[in-house]
Amino acid sequence: MKAAAAVPKWLGRALAIVLLVIVGSTVLVRFAPGYLSDAREMDSRYADAARAELSHEAARSRSLPRMLVSEMGGWLRGDAGLSRQYGVPVFELIRPRLAVTGGLMVRSIALAWALAILAALVSSAGRNPAAIWQAPSTLLLAIPTAAMATICLLANSGGPVLVMALLLSARDFKFLHRALRKAWLEPHVLQARAQGMKTWRILRFHLLPSLTAQLAALATLSIVTALSALVPVEVIFNVPGLGQLAWNAAMNRDLPVLLAITIIMALAVTCSGIAPQRADEWRNA
Amino acid sequence: MKINRSIAALLFGLALIASAVVLAPGASYSRQERDATFAAASRQHMAGTDELGRDRLVRVSAAFLLSLAGAIMASALTTAAAAGVGTLAAFGPASVGWLAMLVCDVFLALPWLFLLMMVRSALPLTTSPANSAAITFLVLAALGWPACARAVYRGALHLKSAEWMLHARASGLRSAQIVRHAIPNFFPLLLPQFLVCIPAFVIAEANLGALGLGVGEPLPSWGGMLLELDNSAMLMQTRWVYFPVALLIVVLLLLDAIAVEVE
Predict the structure, then answer these.
(1) What CATH number is attached to the domain comprising B146?
(2) Can you give the three-state secondary structure of A203-215, one letter per residue?
(3) Is B54 a domain residue?
(4) Can you list the residues of chain A whose pLDDT is less than 50?
(5) Is B236 on the interface with A (CB under 8 A)?
(6) How buried is residue B192: exposed, middle or buried, by Cβ count under 10 Å (0-12/13-18/19+)?
(7) Which one of A138, A142, A266 has the shortest CB-CB distance to B109?
(8) Domain range for B143
């Protein structure tokens, strides 16, 4: 009952966060020093009159309240505004790419979890020094995503899923290894092992239930990490997803597109953060 | 602790060597020798030259120093901001704490790279390379504080309910006196945050630069050098193109090792 009553509170908080993200991002973009400058103004092919018109057009969108109303209006209409670069509704650009990015993220996270859980189970249960298992993950985390993606591309081995999965599994492994190492040393688990209980039964009935909350938190962390890795991976492997669209928008100063993608990403992070908290509350209710 | 010191000494040694390379007479990270493009390693250019005939060793050294200095300064700013917000949220009225954590949640809901791209892409087209470097690290500092602030907030709450703190309050110590005693207890909390942020900022700058949105040319940066890997003509000519990536990984491993050791 208590858990159910907390639902509106959490939803309200999530909504407030998303609204603040929209307002904050719009304010940030509006007050960025070069917001009013347009790349086309430096193009000599444009006549003076056309360039003056571009400056005039930029000046018209100077007012912050008008920007906020227009941004909110775009979201309420369902088109998220108009792209500066292509002159089409932003959502038309985003819609076909959502499935591509979603598919890439799901496959990467699934592969990363499989790798990380397997490695963490073996490393935490074994007697080998932790450093042997941690060295590969530390090394993987020290390689910038862009460098890893470029090297994979040059070596002609591995694609976007593998690069993202390697990065995610390295981070997830560190988290899981620590949690499992601690869980294996719990008194009740030690007793179960001493009594000769089979490993898979210990895992199923003692370890996994106690790690549910931590695994849910890890799912959020995986999504956040995957979103951050998305841009370099999609750009370098030429995947037509949201990351590539965001990069393209950044290079061409198409701020409405960039703003819309940032808001979608914030929405994804907020929703993914709420799910584990809710699961944890229901479990403890 | 011995390992920590030797790693720090190694990093310091690398920084000294890089400084010596950059400050050597005649060394310049931007001087182009158009008749010596893609040159192999020689006595004159120990790591060869790039596509514009610029000395790769000098550029890598300058990129290392710039990135390290920028990341250290950004990390110091982030830690200071996190210390202020975290302490205020923990020791201030409950409403201030709630508001501060809501702001943290808003920042944490925004993936770094997208926000960085948004700010960088909105900069004037005529931004100078030095300004672009300063802005990149300032933006990193401005976006990095919420995660640290949350950690400081949790630590400060723990400190607030510590027995000695309750005892101090019960004994009638004034807030200023309590704060004076509390400050030294914050250092073990802030130092790991400061050290963890440095490699994170170095990686963020490298990723941003590799997308063409980092420090502007001709100023050298890790990200700019990663872009060289896209040049297949250069890859055919020399293997020294991989030198910046290799050094970057070594530096990040050293920074990470220091952070883990202190943590």
Answers:
(1) 1.10.3720.10
(2) HHHHHHHHHHHHH
(3) yes
(4) 279, 281-285
(5) no
(6) middle
(7) A266
(8) 5-20+49-262
DSSP B26: T
> Would you call A190 exposed, middle or buried from its count of C-beta atoms within 10 A (0-12, 13-18, 19+)?
exposed
In a domain, A234, yes or no: yes
Residue B201, domain member (yes or no): yes
Q: Does residue B38 lie within any of the structural domains?
A: no
Task: Assess if residue B30 is contained within a domain.
Answer: no
- Of the candidates A42, A142, A270, the beta carbon closest to that of B125 is on A42
Looking at residue A242, its pLDDT comes to: 92
d(CA A234, CA A245): 9
- Name chain B contacts of A13, Cβ cutoff 8 Å: 102, 105
Number of domains in chain A: 1
Which residues have CB under 8 Å from B111's CB, separation 6+?
A224, A227, A228, A262, A265, A266, A269
Selection from A44, A43, A45, A25 nearest residue A35 by Cα: A25
Measure the CA–CA gap between A187 and B152, rounded to whole angstroms.
32
C-alpha distances in angstroms, B120 versus A127, B115, B150, B215? 48, 9, 26, 10
Instruction: Return the HEC string of A130-191.
Output: HHHHHHHHHHHHCCCHHHHHHHHHHHCCCCHHHHHHHHHHHHHHHHHHHHHHHHHCCHHHHH
A134 interaction partners in chain B (CB closer than 8 Å): none
Domain enclosing residue A226, as ranges: 103-243
**CA-to-CA distance for A215 and A233, rounded, in angstroms?**
25
Per-residue pLDDT, A222: 86
Q: How far is B124 from chain A (nearest CA, A)?
A: 4
B218 upstream amide cis, omega within 30 of 0? yes
- Specify the amino acid at residue A7: V
pTM over 0.80: yes
Q: Give chain B's mean pLDDT.
A: 84
Q: Which two tokens stand for residue B223?
A: 């990200």
C-alpha distances in Å from residue A13, one per residue of A26, A217, A219, B143, B221: 20, 18, 20, 21, 40
Mean of the pLDDT values across residues B68-84?
Answer: 93
Domain-embedded: residue A136: yes
> Looking at A185-189, B96-100, B106-110, which range is the least confident one?
B106-110
Exposure class string for A25-34: b at 16+ Cβ within 10 A, else e: bbebbbebeb
* Total count of domains within chain B: 1
Question: How far apart are alpha carbons B223 and B238 in whole angstroms?
Answer: 19
Report the alpha-carbon distance of residue B208 to residue B222 in Å, rounded: 10
Integer-rounded Cα Rg, in Å, for chain A is 24
> Which member of B118, B121, B124 has the closest CB to residue A25?
B118
Residue A229 located in a structural domain: yes
DSSP B41: P
Other residues' Cβ atoms within 10 Å of the Cβ of residue A72: 15
Is residue A156 a part of any domain in this protein? yes
